[in-house]
Design a protein that fits this description.
By secondary structure, this protein is an all-beta fold. It is built from two helices and 46 strands. It has a domain at 31-111: Immunoglobulin-like. The strands form eleven sheets. It has a 15-stranded mixed beta sheet that branches. Strands 24-23-26-27-31 form a five-stranded antiparallel beta sheet, with no helix packed on it. Strands 16-17-11-20 form a four-stranded mixed beta sheet, with no helix packed on it. β7 (72-74) and β8 (77-80) form a beta hairpin. The chain is elongated.
């Protein structure tokens, strides 16, 4: 080929000339011949050897452009040990191959190592001397139920590594069901949380020292000799409440015109009364605000350092003293509650009544004690209780119902229009830093039929706030347009799969998550029984439940939940006020006997909780509710 010469610059002595060949070729890019390794595990050495060829026949060297912390390249081999922070998350790699003649090419990939999920389960038991950290027993092993690409689910069971701390190894990245542990050997229904977190806190804040349980039932008698009561014509009742929640409150009827009270109370149970440290005695006196009838605290006595004896008679003596007075303006925007209780079930919901509760949480400071997911109020009803309309004795439910359904015996009239009830005054002798809670709950009846039998079902809605900011409007509404497998949840249906997908639109308000209660329905003459088959919570607006059982009929409750701090994906039981709940109830959904069953793999004993859940039994009909 002839050379081509071009003059570039003219100078005084001649021309500067540049000459070239007329053409040249860039170095050829290398070609990767190795396939990246994408499987890895936390704490386990990862290795991938790069390979590439040079089409021009030269040599190839490698370098890393992007890599996670701690990875190294020795020659052509990448080595890396994923840390806890790098596991269950996507880690990016980019390698560059360079030929001896200068050609380059890159290869990119990501690695999401399986990792350890750490579950902390240490309760804070608030006592007279402050919170006591109480780990759950080591046999409360949590599990991870992990969806697989083929539609099956793998159950990975945790191990105890220290008191209250459990590890679940080899959990892939992404979402999974964190299944709350129960003592080994029990097949209680699963309680699950849909989460992608590598750490999870199952701890609660509880009032008082955990109540002990005796090996067998024993009788105990409490003999009261009290003075200092208001000698009014309508003295109300005298309550004996303890700082141990499982211990039932005792209420004695005061005598009109008398400032003293003597009486006895006996109980046969397995409660270990020696664990009771403090008892709150108070005279609850009638107070009415419009249609609301209450018993509010008057004179009070707190007994500390008690030493009760099981199987014996125990004297309870003392003099009640007048309590400092507190008050609040009770204004309920009933129209907002009336709107909230529409489109919540297959039939029309009819408001039937309400509860009002005012309580202190003994010793609890800065948080809200919340031992159960559906227990918006847990403090002893130290300020106000509600009397049974017939006997005048406080009703068994002194606060909001602990379940969002089935309790239809509401105390007060429903409040469905905006009403200012005026000022409520009550005694408040307790430390100012204790958490206080004002709870308002409404109940509706919805029609419910199984075959030829019809029963009313109750749904309950609640809000719990600090009495210092007594705004009793609902915090969030029930979910909107709920569906099961794409069909309205309010339509009776049969489904051909055991893994049901529930979805809904978010309601007004700011829920921190939703809980799905799965109830198996069994019809008997004049009675319908409901078995709890599982409780599953999510922060999303769509979820596929773990498999149900073919041939069974179910009702689903989807409960909107609100809370000041609780996080459904990391710490669902750590609570601050305000809180609230708003449920919807499905129609009857039957899983056909031939429905396709998703495969469950894992420890057979642990999987029994999903295949044969033995939960609480609730009845409506001729038999009493449990």
């Amino acid at each position: 080929m002839r050379a081509l010469c071009l003059p570039l610059v003219a100078v005084s002595l001649g021309f500067l000339v540049a000459c070239g060949s007329g053409s040249h070729s860039a170095p050829l890019s290398p070609v990767f011949t190795s396939t990246p390794v994408t499987a890895a595990s936390q704490g386990v050495s990862y290795s991938y050897t790069l390979a590439a060829t040079d089409p021009a026949g030269g040599t190839v060297t490698f370098s890393l452009v992007t890599e996670p912390a701690g990875s190294t390249l020795a020659g052509s081999t990448i080595n890396w040990t994923p840390t806890a922070a790098e596991s269950r998350a996507s880690n990016s790699f980019e390698a560059m191959a360079t030929t001896s003649s200068g050609g380059t090419a890159t290869q990119s990939w990501t690695v999401t190592p399986t990792g350890t999920v750490t579950v902390n389960w240490v309760d804070a038991d608030w006592t007279p001397t402050g919170p006591v950290q109480t780990p759950v027993p080591t046999n409360f092993l949590p599990s991870a139920l992990v969806p697989q690409a083929d539609g099956s689910l793998q159950l990975l069971t945790g191990t105890s590594v220290s008191p209250g701390v459990f590890n679940i190894a080899q959990v892939p990245g992404g979402y999974y069901w964190l299944i709350q542990g129960v003592p080994q050997g029990l097949s209680l229904p699963p309680i699950g949380f849909w989460t992608n977190s590598s750490t999870f806190d199952l701890g609660h804040d509880n009032v008082g020292v955990p109540t002990g349980v005796l090996s067998s039932s024993e009788d105990i008698t409490l003999n009261f000799t009290l003075s200092g009561l208001d000698a009014s014509a309508t003295p109300g009742v005298v309550g004996f409440l303890t700082d141990n929640l499982p211990v039932p409150p005792v209420y004695l009827t005061a005598t009109p015109g008398q400032s003293t009270l003597t009486g006895s109370y006996s109980l046969n149970s397995r409660i270990d009364w020696t664990t009771v440290n403090t008892a709150f005695l108070g005279q609850y006196e009638p107070s009415s605000l419009g249609a609301l009838n209450n018993l509010v605290l008057g004179p009070e006595l707190t007994l500390t350092n008690m030493q009760l004896t099981n199987g014996a008679a125990n004297p309870i003596n003392g003099t009640l003293a007048a309590s400092p007075t507190a008050s609040l303006d009770l204004n309920i925007p009933g129209s907002q509650w009336a709107t909230l209780m529409q489109n919540v079930a297959p039939g029309t919901a009819t408001p039937i009544g309400s509860w009002l509760s005012l309580a202190a949480e003994p010793y609890v400071v800065g948080v809200n004690a919340k031992p159960e997911l559906f227990a918006p109020t847990v403090g002893a009803a130290l300020y106000m209780v509600q009397p049974d309309p017939t006997s005048g004795v406080p009703f068994a439910i002194t606060a909001c119902p602990t379940q969002p359904f089935l309790f239809s015996d509401a105390i007060e009239p429903a409040v469905v229009s905006d009403t200012n009830f005026g000022t409520l005054s009550y005694g408040d002798p307790y430390p100012a830093n204790w958490t206080r809670e004002l709870a308002f709950c409404q109940s509706v009846n919805v029609p419910f039929s199984v075959g030829s039998q019809s029963f009313p079902m109750a749904l309950n809605y609640s809000v719990v706030v600090d009495p210092a900011a007594p705004t009793l409007a609902p915090l969030a509404g029930p979910v909107v347009n709920p569906t099961i497998n794409g069909t309205s949840l309010f339509t009776t249906a049969s489904v051909n799969t055991t893994a049901e997908n529930l979805s809904w639109s978010a309601p007004n308000g700011t829920p921190y998550g939703y809980t799905v209660n799965v109830l198996q329905v069994i019809a008997m003459p004049n009675v319908v029984e409901f078995f709890t088959a599982g409780t599953y919570s999510t922060a999303q607006t769509s979820v596929t439940l773990p498999p149900l059982t073919a041939g069974n009929t179910y009702v689903f409750l989807i409960i909107t939940q609100t809370d000041g701090v609780a996080n459904m994906q990391t710490s669902p039981y750590r609570s601050q006020l305000p809180t609230g709940m708003a449920p919807v109830m499905s129609a009857l959904i039957t899983v056909n006997s031939g429905a396709a069953a998703a495969q469950l793999r894992g420890d057979a004993k642990q999987l029994e909780r999903f295949r044969n859940p033995k939960g609480e039994v609730y009845r409506i009909g001729d038999s009493p509710k449990k």
